Amino acid sequence: MLQNFKSGKYLSLLINPLDLLRTKKVLRVNPTIAPTRKEPKDIKIFAYDYDSKEINEQEVSTVPECFKYLDSPKVSWINIDGLRKKDVDAISDHFGIHPLIAEDILSIGQRPKMDDLNGMLFCLVNMLYFNEKHHAVESEQLSIVLGKYFVISFQEDNTKDVFNPLREKMKIAGSKLRQSGADYLFYSLIDMVVDNYYVVMEKMGDRIESLEEDITRRADTRTLAKLNMFRKEMILLKRSISPVREVVNGILRSESDLIEEKTQQYFKDVYDHIIQANELAENYRDMMMSLQDLYVSNVNLKMNEVMKVMAIVTCLLAPATVIGGIFGMNFDKIPFAHHELGFYLAMGFMLVVPVVMIFIFKRRGWF
Fold first, then answer.
1. Sequence-distant (≥ 6) Cβ neighbours of residue 52 within 8 angstroms
2. For a designed S-S bond to 203, which of 45, 48, 130, 162 qualifies (C-beta 3.0 to 4.6 A apart)?
């Protein structure tokens, strides 16, 4: 298959062979196709049960061990790392989560959304990370369900998330989190995800500056490959951030009894943050288009420089070609053809005329 690849167009795929699959994953999402998620062998479940006075943190090994938190008078946060259908169905049946929500939790490539079903608020967003090793943006689907006294979060990857600062706040007895209800915890999770968007975009901003320097110094096929990969990262970034605005706006307009009036002010703050993040993503996309124009301009400029040098060399060789052509004609009588200094005179003209031409070109500023 590789013999049909054009080197310039597919250089990015040679650098990262999985980039084509990544592009299809980003651009070709069909919500009508049944999910084919590969279920993990092991999952991690952490349960936090707290109030203003005490907190109980526990790692449980099975889903049924979480069922006791449904009747807990405290605020409970159950975080499930790793998605298996039987586990999602079991916890959905016990906590009264609607089957449509369970289906969205198990979906792949779902667009960020929110729903208000069975007296519960459901929110699906994408957590973004910046992979320092591969210099790429990675996405993980996060599903959050808010009940009256509990919050359940479902994550795809059990190796990373953005909630460690929240866990530290949870251990502080006098923190706002410990003094508030489940709706504030629901807000805090979404706020952490949105705040991390800025961390990722800051890394993208550094890449833009580095890429601009590369294009300015050398506009070659490798730089073009980097530009193409950056364009795909921007597609993923924009696709993950833009719908979150509608998600937060939907929560504000839901008029659910689960969200207290004082907590709505915090969601308005998140709404402002996601608007700013969306505008920043738009700015980055405009900058990417400018980088593409800059690349084309530099390539054209480089080509013009090459053509100018070739034209000058051609002009400088023209006198020698003309003189050599004249004295190479097959006539019996040619001036100075048999003169003892004829050769030296011809060579002198071949050298003097180009020197005069260089002087004239230099004064005119042609190079």
1. 173, 178, 179
2. 130
The CATH number covering residue 341 comes to 1.20.58
Exposure string over 188-220, b if 16+ CB within 10 A, otherwise e? bbbbbbbebbeebbebbeebbeebeebbeeebb
Q: Domain limits at 315?
A: 307-363
Residue 266 backbone class (left: φ over 0; alpha: ψ -120 to 50; beta: rest): alpha
Are residues 327 and 254 located together in one domain of the fold?
Answer: no
CB 116 within 8 A of CB 78: no
Rounded to an integer, the average pLDDT of 21-41 is 57
* Same structural domain, 347 and 277: no
Q: Which residue has the tokens 């069909």?
A: 30
Identify the three-state secondary structure at position 32: coil
Q: Are 350 and 237 in a shared domain? A: no
Between CA 147 and CA 152, with CA 149 as vertex, the angle to 5 degrees is: 55
Domain end (from 298, 326, 343)? 298
> Global pTM?
0.75
Q: Which residue has the higher pLDDT, 366 or 74?
A: 74
Q: What's the mean per-residue pLDDT of the chain? A: 83
CB-CB neighbours of 20 under 10 Å: 13
212 & 254 share domain: yes
CA angle 288, 293, 295 (to 5 degrees): 90
Tens digit of each residue's pLDDT (9 = 90 or more) over 309-362? 888 888 888 888 888 887 777 777 777 777 777 788 888 888 888 888 888 888
The number of folded domains in the chain is 2
pLDDT over threshold 50, residue 288: yes
Pair (134, 177) in one structural domain:
yes
Query: Where does a domain end: 298, 332, 351?
Result: 298
